[in-house]
Write a structure and sequence with these properties.
The structure holds two protein chains of two kinds.
Chain A (H helix, E strand, L loop, with lengths): L1 H4 L13 H15 L16 E2 L3 E2 L6 E8 L9 E5 L2 E3 L3 H11 L10 E6 L5 H14 L3 E5 L1 E2 L6
Parallel strand pairs in A: 1-8, 3-6, 6-7
Antiparallel strand pairs in A: 3-4, 4-5
Chain B lengths: L13 H15 L6 E6 L18 E6 L5 E3 L2 E3 L1 H12 L8 E2 L2 E2 L22 E6 L5 H27 L3 H10 L4 H13 L4 E3 L5
Parallel strand pairs in B: 2-7, 7-8
Antiparallel strand pairs in B: 2-3, 3-4, 5-6
The chains are: A alpha/beta, B alpha/beta.
């Protein structure tokens, strides 16, 4: 009857030897997919509008981004601010910004360059129009109004 | 003297280091694909440019005021009704289409609209003009643009389903995957020219 007197068998420890492998796999995945933000935002992170009819931006290197929103720095006031590269700018600086972006690309690529406007939903259309007029003057006609893809928009 | 055995490096903390890196990349990663409503700006008109005269019935006026309210063809409207109104306007087909290379496109034989004489003549003549106030919220502006684009997409899908038994979205997808296919290209072009997107942004009121 030694069967009953036996001490209860101890649970074997879970083998964690493959844990580093799993972690490394995840690590590589995130390392590959990560895209570092190359500009620090001077404006508050814009809340993008939702839309159903969005198109993906194809050539990432040919996209120049203009941010519109409220400044993080409260000293700059409460109105809409435009950010080009790392600085808060005025609509007049857009011409120089676009020309500068163009000078870094080859001649053949210039017609495919797109300007993406990342504006907060609370910003006003007037600011966007100012930007559009400047872009038209400089001949950067391809425009993308950045928005999130959603299935249906609510009223 | 016998060679001393090299001691094995303790790899127990490797997982910790990997975890640390993993968490760093997890935090910094942003998975957003850049997407947006694409628009083509019109070229800057020359100084002595005289805008062509367009019949009032071929213009669909959408006004957004600073309180984000809609005025469509002189009547207030809710955002939810805009798409249907725009579809009815584009798809009306009340008359002759515009001349392309000196050849008239004639009557719109694929339109299923009311053929009312007071609405647009032909989809390639139908202009949608959006005028907003400087104080209009950008979110509202995008919503209106989106509704109008949806009207076009639905009409294109309908036509493509009737003509080729496949939706326009599907056609475009197929064409993207097989961009050398001339037959697909022709089909996409055909649908595109049947319902061209003529969306114009009027200068905003201040």
């Amino acid at each position: 009857m030694s069967k009953f007197g036996k001490k209860k068998k101890e649970m074997p420890a879970v083998n964690t030897a493959s844990l580093p492998d799993i972690v490394f796999m995840l690590l590589f995945f995130f390392m590959v997919t990560t895209t570092m933000r190359e500009t620090t935002l001077q404006i508050e992170n814009p809340k993008l509008p939702n839309a159903t009819e969005v198109k993906k931006l194809e050539h990432k290197s040919l996209v120049s981004t203009i941010y519109v929103g409220k400044a993080k720095d409260k000293k700059l006031g409460n109105g809409d601010k435009i950010q080009l590269n790392d600085k808060i700018a005025t609509p007049d600086d857009i011409t120089a910004f676009i020309l500068n972006e163009r000078s870094q690309k080859s001649e053949a690529e210039i017609p495919y360059m797109t300007t993406s406007i990342k504006a907060d939903i609370k910003s006003s259309v007037g600011t966007i129009t100012d930007i559009k007029l400047k872009l038209r003057d400089v001949g950067a006609l391809k425009l993308s109004l950045s928005s999130r893809k959603s299935e249906a928009i609510q009223e | 003297m016998a060679r001393r055995e090299t001691p094995e490096i303790n790899a127990g903390s490797m997982a910790d280091i990997a975890f640390l890196l993993l968490i760093f990349f997890l935090v910094t990663t942003t998975m957003d694909v850049d997407s947006g409503i694409s628009k083509k700006l019109s070229e800057k008109p020359p100084k002595d440019y005289v805008p062509p005269v367009i019949k009032q019935k071929n213009i669909f006026e959408v006004n957004i005021n600073r309180n984000n309210e809609l005025l469509v063809e002189g009547e207030t409207m809710k955002l939810g009704e805009l798409k249907e109104a725009a579809k009815n306007f584009i798809d009306n087909g009340g008359g002759e289409g515009k001349e392309i290379d000196g050849v008239s496109t004639g009557l719109c034989n694929y339109c299923k609209g009311a053929k009312s004489p007071t609405s647009s003549d032909h989809p390639n003549k139908a202009i949608i003009s959006v005028q907003s106030d400087r104080g209009t919220e950008y979110g509202m502006y995008i919503k209106v643009q989106n509704e109008l684009l949806r009207a076009y997409t639905e009409l294109r899908n309908r036509l493509a389903l009737d003509k080729y038994n496949v939706s326009y979205d599907q056609l475009v997808d197929d064409f993207k995957r097989d961009s050398k296919n001339e037959v697909l290209k022709k089909k996409v072009e055909d649908i595109k020219t049947s319902y061209p997107q003529i969306l114009s942004d009027a200068e905003p009121t201040s």
